[in-house]
């Protein structure tokens, strides 16, 4: 994560202040201490050009096809500097030999998410943005990953992208949390 907090920047903020004393002090301080806006712009440009230390993806990749996910993992790998960490939280299924027992067990677990909850969420996003951001897919879309991948299949996608030191931080009835490192 990159945070740029420039402090006092030379702008026309003082012009909008109505109290004459505060306006004068603000203008005096601006002229004495404030950084020029182009210096901040250069700092922002420099920061966003730097490789990332950490990338976090939470409940995002499963909306894509396997091919798109593989490409995305490759892009994330490229964006990280050596030693950078990719944290991934996604829905997960069972390894094929264990799927029947796992699916029986999972049905007995309280659901953490329902399809209708996602519909309501995206409706709120659209209303807040005043723009139809769109819903990311229907639950029966066969092209998207959904919860069909096992933990080891997610690990395989990460390995194929070049990640190493992959660790399973959490595994429950619905999701997996994986941490991986770019060597």
Task: Identify the notable features of this structure and list them briefly.
single chain; elongated; Rossmann fold; alpha+beta
What does this entry look like structurally?
- The protein is α+β, with helices and mostly antiparallel strands and 183 residues long.
- It has two domains: 13-47, no CATH class; 51-181, Vaccinia Virus protein VP39 (Rossmann fold), CATH 3.40.50.
- The protein contains six helices and four strands, in the order ααβαβαααββ.
- Strands 1-2-4-3 form a four-stranded mixed β-sheet.
- The longest helix has 15 residues, at 115-129.
- The chain is elongated, with a radius of gyration of 23 Å.
**Total discrete domains:** 2
CATH fold descriptor of the largest domain: Rossmann fold
As a percent range, the share of strand residues is: 15-25%
* Spatial extent as radius of gyration: 23 Å
Largest sheet: 4 strands, mixed
CATH architecture designation of the largest domain: 3-Layer(aba) Sandwich
User: CATH superfamily assignment of the largest domain?
Assistant: Vaccinia Virus protein VP39
Number of strand segments:
4
How do the helices and strands follow one another from N- to C-terminus? HHEHEHHHEE
Quote the average pLDDT. Answer: 82
List the helices and strands and how they pair.
Blueprint: H1 20-33, H2 37-49, E1 52-58, H3 66-79, E2 80-91, H4 99-108, H5 115-129, H6 151-161, E3 164-171, E4 175-181
Parallel strand pairs: 1-2
Antiparallel strand pairs: 2-4, 3-4
Helix pairs in contact: 3-6
């Amino acid at each position: 994560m990159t945070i740029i907090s420039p402090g006092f920047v030379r702008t026309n903020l003082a012009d909008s202040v109505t109290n004459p004393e505060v306006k004068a002090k603000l203008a005096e301080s601006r002229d004495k201490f404030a950084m020029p806006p182009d210096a901040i712009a250069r700092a922002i440009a420099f920061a966003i050009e730097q490789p990332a230390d950490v990338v976090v993806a939470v409940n995002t990749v499963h909306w894509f096809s396997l091919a798109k996910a593989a490409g995305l993992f490759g892009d994330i790998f490229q964006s990280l500097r050596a030693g950078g960490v990719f944290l991934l939280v996604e829905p997960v299924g069972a390894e094929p030999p264990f799927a029947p027992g796992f699916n029986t067990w999972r049905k007995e677990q309280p659901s953490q998410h329902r399809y209708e909850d996602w519909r309501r969420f995206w409706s709120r996003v659209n209303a807040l943005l005043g723009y139809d951001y769109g819903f990311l897919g229907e639950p029966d879309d066969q092209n998207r990953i959904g919860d069909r991948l096992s933990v080891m299949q997610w690990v395989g996608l990460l390995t194929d992208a070049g990640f190493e030191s992959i660790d399973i931080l959490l595994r429950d009835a619905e999701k997996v949390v994986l941490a991986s490192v770019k060597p």
